[in-house]
């Protein structure tokens, strides 16, 4: 099936540890995105990539890092510098930037 | 970046009722989507509608790009329509960025 796969679905980490969230798509989309959602809030853009080996900071990039070495993959690392990492993280992709975006099922990260 | 306002923030409907959700943008957008977020957090695509009108079953959407707003109509609501509805829009300023509204939380009661 074509789609966007995020893993794991739930993730627990100790404070001060870096953690990497996986996002893979087999839709042959050029553009990929990471969003963060806090309870009762909308989605805020962390990073986006319009093409392989290129990515741009979104509105809340501090404490996060990404890479885009392959078209299919856009992993997000939540570093120890992120002050409030507990949140719901959503990955999306689109044919190219500005076209219809499709989302994965999300990863719920809890830092204790 | 652009600002996206959604109204109403909360809505309670009796099953079978109709409703209209609104999304206002601070700038002209060149892409606009409506999503439904289910209780498990999954974002379901409803419409990609930069302009014009589209219909899908009991749902329809209209975007008036020149006036910077979009409307989502839900007719004959069902309990399964409950959840949060988001609109999201983007403008092309060099790189394309998309901004989400804060959502409308809909509860449909039997």
Tell me about this structure.
The complex is a heterodimer of chains A (112) and B (110). Chain A is mostly beta strands and 112 residues long. Chain A is 0% helix and 51% strand. Chain A has no helices and eleven strands. In chain A, strands 2, 4, 5, 6, 9, 10 and 11 form a seven-stranded mixed sheet that branches. In chain A, strands 1-3-8-7 form a four-stranded antiparallel sheet, with no helix packed on it. Chain A starts with a strand and ends with a strand. Chain B has strands spanning 4-7, 10-14, 19-25, 31-37, 43-48, 52-56, 59-64, 69-74, 83-93, 95-100, 104-109. In chain B, strands 2, 4, 5, 9, 10 and 11 form a six-stranded mixed sheet that branches. In chain B, strands 1-3-8-7-6 form a five-stranded antiparallel sheet, with no helix packed on it. Chains A and B meet through strand 4, strand 5, strand 9 and strand 10 of A and strand 4, strand 5, strand 9 and strand 10 of B.
Element pattern of chain A in H and E: EEEEEEEEEEE
Instruction: Tell me which protein chains meet in the greatest interface and how many residues each side has.
Output: A-B, 27 and 24 residues
Note the total helix count of chain A.
Answer: 0
Q: What characteristic shape of chain B results from the CA principal axes?
A: globular
């Amino acid at each position: 099936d074509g789609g966007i796969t995020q893993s794991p679905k739930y993730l627990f980490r100790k404070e001060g540890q870096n953690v990497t969230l996986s996002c893979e798509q087999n839709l042959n989309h050029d553009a990929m995105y990471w969003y963060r959602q806090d309870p009762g809030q909308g989605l805020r853009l962390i990073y986006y990539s319009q093409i392989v080996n290129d990515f741009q900071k979104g509105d809340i990039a501090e404490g996060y890092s990404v890479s885009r070495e392959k078209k299919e993959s856009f992993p997000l690392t939540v570093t120890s510098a992120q002050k409030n990492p507990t949140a719901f993280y959503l990955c999306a992709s689109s044919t190219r930037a500005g076209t219809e975006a499709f989302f994965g099922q999300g990863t719920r990260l809890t830092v204790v | 970046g652009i600002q996206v306002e959604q109204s109403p923030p909360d809505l309670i409907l009796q099953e079978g009722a109709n409703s209209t959700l609104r999304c206002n943008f601070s700038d002209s957008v060149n892409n606009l989507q409506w999503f439904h977020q289910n209780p498990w957090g999954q974002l379901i695509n409803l419409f990609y509608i930069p302009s014009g009108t589209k219909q899908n079953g009991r749902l329809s959407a209209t975007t008036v790009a020149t006036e910077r707003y979009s409307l989502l109509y839900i007719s004959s609501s069902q309990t399964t329509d409950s959840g949060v509805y988001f609109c999201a829009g983007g403008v092309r300023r060099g790189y394309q960025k998309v901004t989400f509204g804060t959502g409308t939380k809909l509860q449909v009661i039997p």
